[in-house]
Prior knowledge:
Layout: H1 2-26, E1 30-36, H2 57-72, E2 77-82, E3 103-106, E4 109-112, E5 136-140, H3 162-168, E6 171-178, H4 181-194, E7 198-202, H5 211-223, E8 227-229, H6 234-239
Parallel strand pairs: 1-2, 1-6, 2-5, 6-7, 7-8
Antiparallel strand pairs: 3-4
Helix pairs in contact: 4-5
Amino acid sequence: MKNCGIMILVGVLFFTLVFGGSAMAKESVKIGVIVVDIQGDFTKLKNGSLAVEGTDEAYIKAVEENTRKLKAAGFPIYATQDWHPANHASFFTNHPGKKAFDVIKLNNRDQVLWPPHCVQKTPGAAILLDKKLFKAVVKKGMDSQYDSYSGFQDDGGKKTEMDKLLKKNKIKKVVVYGIATDYCVRATALDAAAAGYKVIMIKNLSRGVAPDTSQKALDEMKAKGIVVLDDLDIEKIKTSY
């Protein structure tokens, strides 16, 4: 009887280790990926109206290849997409007498006036990656009165569907990269952190408008607890935090 009891105890321990460990693995932090604004108007490849340096064919290919790796590893992929109406208040052409990159006050905020870009249903607004990579595409910047750098909300505080989509899929950690480091990537990463997500930003899969503002954005992200990786490293993504 004593031997029988020991065997039962061993069996219970084995069951707990195998199936309990499996359950714990399933409960591990779920990771999502947010690919920010890989759109024609932001790229040199497409001679975009607001093209960022370093956004040539090689960059777009690198983003697509690495995004495929993340998808193959089982991470759900989300894209953000600037989707402005033609009368958007951030376009200098909608302010007589103003020129591109002038700064005005709009809704009590400093607003950079941009060349018209990513206008709804135009070629420049198209995402340049394979659409099959994405679980969802989150459009932003649709309110004509507010700019929208973040994939989570516009400058007026109106939320996109990003947070709901991530929560619906039980995602706790997000990987962020794209265009531009010092604007939409920065804002998306910071808003993700503020919303309670663990955030990893991939530096070399992003491109910035200017070196100084890009470095400032990287420093700001790090100060908020965001992990900045130079290159894609799936093991580090899984084990960071």
